[in-house]
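Design request, tokens follow.
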């Protein structure tokens, strides 16, 4: 899941991003509305965590842009104002959810994950394929009942491959969904993560390389 955080309180924005990345989400951060509009033009996001009072372009303008462009991006609006009128105004603009500052990180995470599930066709919280069980809610993975101690990147790669249900996923798609934008990652980073993931999954191998196309979860030989 790819998330864009737009928050002019840089410390808060960075803290949210750090937490979401620990929970295996790909996160980009900008600190003003103008940069948010540019990112939304260039990149497809599952969820937009949007502060309402922003420099450059007001959060209301950013939200309207998402609606007018008919983007699939779900909007979680943040604000220090907590009146009913403020909440209604935000939802009337097209926001999908509303969270008043201060808030608990656990609540923000739950709302982001819930909105992310609405961006795509409904998937079960527990995905099973080729002897692998992936619990996306608890961020846990098992193979034939054996717990897999995965890094957040390894979990993210496995999650994307499992959700593809046997379809081929390119290295570029994995980078787009698992790594942060403008971090200098190339397909070599995918190869390294896949190598470590394969080692932790063990034999027989279930991740197939499709030369010239990408990777898929196959059937053990």
């Amino acid at each position: 899941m790819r998330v864009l955080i737009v928050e002019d309180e840089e410390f808060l924005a960075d803290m949210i991003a750090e937490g979401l990345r620990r929970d295996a989400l790909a996160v980009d951060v900008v600190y003003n509305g103008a940069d948010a509009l540019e990112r939304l033009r260039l990149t497809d996001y599952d969820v937009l965590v949007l502060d309402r009072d922003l420099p450059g372009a007001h959060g209301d303008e950013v939200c309207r842009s998402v609606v007018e462009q008919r983007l699939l991006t779900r909007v979680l609006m943040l604000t220090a104002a907590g009146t009913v009128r403020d909440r209604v105004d935000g939802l009337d603009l097209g926001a999908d959810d509303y969270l008043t500052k201060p808030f608990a990180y656990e609540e923000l995470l739950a709302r982001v994950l819930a909105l992310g599930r609405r961006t795509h066709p409904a998937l079960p919280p527990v995905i099973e394929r080729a002897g692998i069980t992936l619990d996306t809610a608890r961020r846990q993975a098992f193979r034939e009942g054996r717990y897999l101690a995965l890094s957040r990147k390894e979990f993210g790669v496995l999650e994307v491959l499992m959700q593809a249900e046997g379809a081929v996923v390119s290295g570029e798609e994995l980078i787009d969904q698992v790594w942060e934008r403008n971090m200098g990652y190339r397909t070599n980073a995918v190869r390294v993560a896949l190598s470590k993931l394969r080692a932790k999954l063990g034999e027989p191998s279930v991740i197939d390389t499709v030369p010239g196309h990408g990777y898929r979860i196959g059937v053990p030989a």
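Comment from the thread starter after seeing the answer: thanks! The CA atoms of residues 81 and 100 lie 7 Å apart.
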